[in-house]
Amino acid sequence: MSDPLGLLTWTTFGAVAAMTLGGGVLTVTLRNLFHAVLGLVVSLLGVAGVFLMLASEFVAVIHVLIYVGAIVTLFLFVIMLTHRIDSAEEPQTSRQWFAALILGAGFFAMAVSALLRAPWAVASPPVEAASVETLGREMLTTHVLAFEAVSLLLIVALVGAVTLARREETRP
Do 41 and 19 contact (CB within 8 A), yes or no? Predict the structure, then answer.
């Protein structure tokens, strides 16, 4: 063991990759939708771990806030409001699993073929690291119109969500 830091890096990467892949497998194989969303959380936290390993802490935190915090919460609200976590009335398996397997294997083979034929650059030019301060300055000066448009869109979505949540359910 001449390079213990390299071994630690590879071990951490293996754990994060296993977490991401394991969460993805759980997401697509679990029959209970609530449990599948929890598998998605595990997978998304693994992706945040990859961002942390790439020394991109800001992107990792934003990823956790947006995807794990907001999107997964939205998925859980949809599951809870539709009252269909496990429905015994409808089968949850597809009859076209063999066609999906063949199609997925074909896409995987094309991706591997493209990766093997692609020229890989040995060295890349140094990139200036963007700090949170630089990002904030750019968002509030150069991209202020887009920033305000997104804030307006979020406010409209919030008002719509509150309106839908306050509406009384009418059942026949």
Answer: no
